[in-house]
Write a structure and sequence with these properties.
The protein is mainly alpha-helical. Helices cover 68% and strands 0% of the residues. The protein has one domain: Up-down Bundle (AhpD-like), CATH 1.20.1290. The radius of gyration is 15 Å and the shape is globular. This is Alkylhydroperoxidase AhpD family core domain-containing protein.
């Protein structure tokens, strides 16, 4: 699929503004492995090939196993994720699908039991920023480059 607009070149300041969230996100208590899982799951839901490719690589680099990455779309049906990860993934799915889920109290209560308020705000920022990147990449048809590995 051909890229519609080279948005990085057309509006580099816009890309820089969104990317400016990265240092803050990296400084939070949301560890790199969980962050990569959440970013990957959000990108899977949204169908962003560019971000699925990037965050799969980031997750492996952060120490994630291939089996857990392979099973991420069906995380509820596997024993591979702990309760904190499950709460974060449920929250990520609900926030990503906010127009249909309304982010119900039951999902909030589950994630709130595993994350303090600050960490929950930070996790929600991770999810929100990932959704923004997905929407930009999908809208302008930014796909991943072929890799040899």
């Amino acid at each position: 699929m051909a890229q519609r607009i080279a948005y990085q070149q057309v509006a580099p300041d816009a890309v820089k503004a969104l990317a400016a969230t990265r240092p803050y996100i990296a400084s939070t208590n949301i560890d790199a492995r969980l962050r990569a899982l959440v970013e990957l799951r959000v990108s899977q839901i949204n169908g962003c090939s560019y971000c699925v490719d990037m965050h799969s690589r980031e997750a492996r680099h952060a120490g994630e196993t291939q089996q857990r990455l392979d099973c991420l779309p069906v995380w509820r049906e596997t024993p591979f994720y702990d309760e904190r990860e499950r709460a974060a993934l449920a929250w990520a799915e609900s926030v990503t699908l906010v127009s249909t889920t309304g982010v119900p109290d039951s999902v909030f209560e589950q994630v709130r039991s595993k994350f303090d308020e600050k960490d929950l705000v930070d996790l929600t920022l991770v999810i929100s920023v990932m959704n923004a990147w997905n929407r930009i990449a999908i809208s302008f048809r930014q796909g991943p480059a072929a890799r040899s590995n």
